[in-house]
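Q: How would the C-alpha cells look for this protein?
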Amino acid sequence: MSALTARRGLRETPPPGDGPANDDSLQPRSLLRFITCGSVDDGKSTLIGRILFETGAVFDDQLGALQRDSRKFGTQGASLDLALLVDGLSAEREQGITIDVAYRYFATPRRAFIVADTPGHEQYTRNMATGASTADLAIILVDARLGLLPQTRRHSFIVSLVGVRHVVVAVNKMDLVGYDRAVFERIAADYRQAAAGLGFADITVVPLSARDGDNVASPSPAMGWYDGPPLLAHLENVVVEAPARAHRGAVLPVQWVNRPDSEFRGYAGNLAHGELTVGDRVAILPSGRTTTVARILTPAGEARHAQAGQALTVTLADEVDVSRGDLIVHADDAPPLSRSLSARLLWTAETAMEPGRRYQLKLASTQCGAVIGGLHHRIDVASYAEVPAATLAMNDIGAVTLDLDQPVGALPYAESLVLGGFILIDPVSRETVAFGFVGESREARRIASQATPRGAAATLRARLAASLGEPGTLRRSERAGQFAGHLTGTVLLAGLVLAWTENLAAAALVAGADLVLRPLAVIAGRSLGGRVWRRRLATRGAPEENLLGDGI
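A: Here is the predicted structure in C-alpha cell form.
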C-alpha cells in the first residue's frame, strides 16, 4: 500500500474505502464543482485518480479491479495506473486518452467536490466545453517538460468564455524535470502573461507530480522551495462566489404545457431568474400579452412563492396563448426581444461554418431559424488576438451576428447563463455545430448610442452601419455588390435611352428614376417574400418540434 501512495515513501495515506469520502456522518460545508483540462497527455486523469485515492474514495473492490486493469491497459509499468479510475471507455484505455467527460464525487472534512475529467485531445474540445459549462473552478494542467501548448491556451479561453473565474494551473510531471524551480517559475510567468486579458479573478499555480502524489494532498519534501498549499488544501479553502447577474426579474422558460384534462392548463419549467409569487403581474414573450400568476405548483405541492432554480408549474389567471419556448417574465422587468444577436461561437462541427447558411438556434427552450449574417473576426488561440476570417473551422472561436426568423428573449451571457447560452444545430443532420454565447444586442447598442450625445457625422455613420451592415460582415459585402450591380444597370439603361432618343435630359430622368424606384421595388419584394417564408415556417414549426422528441 505504501508503494501506491508515495513512490518514495514520503507519507502515509488512509487505506482505500476508509477516507472521509466514505464517512456517512460527515456533513460537508459546501460543494465545489471543478474540471481538469489542458492538452492531451498532461496527466488530467492521473491527477483525479490520485485525488480519489488520497481522499479514500477508492473502495477495496475498485482497487482490485484497478490492479487487474493496470496489468492489461496501464502505462506505468508494474505500478498502478490511477488514470484508469476515470478512463472507463474501452477506447480510452486502448488509446491512453480521455474522450468523454467523466464525473466523480469525493469529499474531505472541509468540502464536498464534483470533478469533471475532460478530454485534452483537440478533436474532443466540445466535450471539454460541456464539462466547463457547470464548473466553479478549473484546474488547467501543464506538462513541465513542454510548457504552454495551443490546447492549453484554447482551453483557458473556453474556460473564460463560459464564465469560470477561478483557475489553478497545475504544473505536472515535475519529477521529470528534476523538480527544477526555474522551470516552474518560467511556466507560471508565461501563463500569467498569456491569461492577463481573460478576466480570471485569481490564478494559483501549483507544482506537482500526479503520478507520485507530490503536492497533491500533502507538501512534497522534493519541492521545499514551494511555500504554497498543496492542491487539495487549496481546493478545500478557495472561496468561489457566484457571479453577480444583472437581470433580477423572474424568467420562466416554458418547457411543457401541462394539460391533463379540460379543467387544468399549467406551464412547466425551471425558474431561471428572480422570484415568482401568486398574484404577480407577468408578461408572455414574444407575444407581449400580460396576465397574473394564479397558482404555483412544485414537486412538494402547491406554494405561494418560488425562487430561481426551482422546478415548477404555474397557472395563469387569463386564457392566453402560451407554448413551449415562450417566456413567462415579470411584466415590469422583462428581457429585451431581438431578431438579431451578436455572439461568440465555439465551432464544434468537422465541416466549416458557412456564413449566410440557415441553422437552427436553441436558446433555453426556444428554437428558431438563424442565419449567420456576418463573421466579424476569429480568435487566434496563440495570442488571443482578433484576426479577420472568412469562416470558422472546427474548434475555432469567433464573433458573429445572427439574424433570427422570430423575436427571441435573450440576455448577454454575462447577465444570464440560461438566456445567454445557446447551441446551433444543422437542420439536416441534427448535429450540434456550435456553442454560442450572447453578447450585447444590436438593440442595446442602438439604445445606448441614442442616449449618448453625438454629432451629425457620427449619427450618419451609425445609420449607414445599421442599413449597410458592419464593416467586414457578409451583409456589408452583399450590399456593396448589390449597389455596384444596380449602378452598372442604371448606366446601361441611361445609355440605351440616350442612344434611342438622343435626348440627354430624358436619359438623366430615366437614370434618376431607376436609382430611386428599383431599391423600393426590391425592398417591397423582399418584405413580401419574408412574410410568405415566415408564414410557411410557422405552419411547419409545430410538427417539426414533435418530430425532434425533445420532451420537457
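The chain has four domains: 2-237, 251-330, 337-446, 483-543.

The mean pLDDT is 79.

Upvote if useful.
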